[in-house]
Amino acid sequence: MSSTPQTPPDFADVEAAAARIAPHAHVTPVLRSRSLDALAGAELFFKCENFQRAGAFKFRGACNAVWSLDDETAARGVVTHSSGNHGAALALAAKTRGVAAHVVVPEGAVAAKLEAIEASGATLHRCAPTIAAREAMADAVREQTGATLVHPYTDARVIAGQGTAVLELLRDVGALDSIVTPVGGGGLIGGSAIAAHGFDARIEVHGAEPEGADDAARSLRDGTRVTELVPDTICDGLRGLIGAINFDLLRAHRVHVATVSDRDTLAAMRLIWERLKIIVEPSSAIALAAVLAQRERFAGRRVGIVLSGGNVDLNGYFERFS
Predict the structure, then answer these.
(1) How do residues 145-202 score in pLDDT, each as one tens digit?
(2) Residues 257-290, buried b or exposed e (16+ Cβ, 10 A)?
(3) Own/partner pairs, 122-127, CB within 8 angstroms, 24+ separation
(4) In Å, how far are 8, 18, 71, 183, 260 from 187, measured between CA atoms?
(5) 58 assigned to active site
(6) CB 122, CB 87: distance < 8 Å
(7) Predicted local confidence at residue 322, as pLDDT
(8) Nearest to 190 by CA among 233, 218, 135, 198
(9) Quick one: 255 exposed, middle or buried, by C-beta within 10 A (0-12, 13-18, 19+)?
(10) Where would I find the beta strands (DSSP E) of the chain?
(11) What is the pLDDT of residue 318?
(12) Could you point out which of 95, 107, 171, 253 has its C-alpha 20 to 30 Å from the C-alpha of 22?
């Protein structure tokens, strides 16, 4: 890889990541729905990362980061902090290489995601549900173990890996007018923008962000990155603040970020379950919700929507009827 974890990756890095992760990651399907096309007034192409290993796009970036390490560095293991999906992805990626993984998780993380992390053999470290607490504990674990920090979204190796989902989508379906992805810390939207504009500079890139965690939208509006915000959203995977490197990518690629209510997100999740017959989590469904809320913007266009993951804690649903 040509760039360091502190330097934004480029299209060549995304292409290199695609080759690096090919032996380990799934090529995920693209689904269509005539009824959802009619609702949106557009042609929608759903890139289903809920079918990715570990149940989310996060495996792409984690896998690229783990397999980018030299043997000596990899042998000391990897560490990260995560609300769930990135932790599960890094745990699985580390397992594919036979190295240790440490995952710092905040209180209140989705149980199904924690089970997935432990199932891959990672060591869990619990902390308070704040970004500051997560980062402090991850740094402490790194110092204690010598493990390499693989940040959920500010690591260029991770960003490049996440971009491979949109690269696959474009190679699969051809020209698109717009790409829409969820926005949390910014790894997926940043990598997607790099991949989209490396493929065709005319593609518009859009992000979907919860109203209760709207730091990226506010940062773009004000021209200064928001660094303090207490998220309040059902989208647990989108509660991270936009990273510095990620904010720079959003500005460089002229990404538009729309905010979406949790109510609209849940309505979109239900539509996806009903029309596509697949399980996605709220942090995925928000991308469709953003398109439906902005029909005029996307009308008549070919729109790629990244469904980022499907790790829903179903226990809560079934307990209601037991």
Answers:
(1) 999 999 999 999 999 999 999 999 999 999 999 999 999 999 999 999 999 999 999 9
(2) bbbbebebbbebbebbeebbebbbbbbbbbbbbb
(3) 122/87, 122/90, 122/91, 122/94, 127/81
(4) 11, 16, 25, 8, 19
(5) yes
(6) yes
(7) 45
(8) 198
(9) buried
(10) 30-31, 43-48, 78-81, 101-106, 123-127, 148-149, 178-182, 204-210, 256-260, 302-307
(11) 52
(12) 253
| Cβ atoms of 187 and 268 closer than 8 Å | no
Strand 123-127: give its sheet, edge to edge.
123-127, 101-106, 78-81, 148-149
Rounded distance, CA 291 to CA 293, Å?
5
Does residue 50 register a pLDDT over 70?
Answer: yes
Distance in angstroms between the alpha carbons of the first and the last residue of the chain: 51
Q: 1 is written with which tokens?
A: 């890889």
pLDDT of residue 312: 83
290: confidence class by pLDDT, cuts 50, 70, 90:
very high
Rounded Cα distance between 230 and 133, Å, is 13
**Which member of 68, 82, 83, 219 is catalytic?**
83
Determine the Cα–Cα distance for residues 11 and 44; give it in Å rounded to an integer: 24
Q: Which residues fall within 8 angstroms of residue 18, CB to CB, at 6 or more apart?
A: 164, 167, 168
Query: Bridge partners of 305?
Result: 46, 180
Tally Cβ neighbours within 10 Å of residue 111: 12
Per-residue pLDDT at 2 = 39
Instruction: Give all domains of the chain, ordered by start, each with its CATH number.
Output: 11-56+157-316 (3.40.50.1100), 58-154 (3.40.50.1100)
**Are 170 and 304 contacting, i.e. CB atoms less than 8 angstroms apart?**
yes
Q: Contact, 123 vs 103, CB < 8 A?
A: yes
- Exposure string of 200-219, with b = 16+ CB inside 10 Å and e = fewer, is eeebbbbbbbbbbbbbbbbb
Q: Shortest CA distance to 267 belongs to which of 236, 234, 295, 299? A: 234
Per-residue pLDDT at 103 exceeds 50: yes
Predicted TM-score (pTM) of the model is 0.92
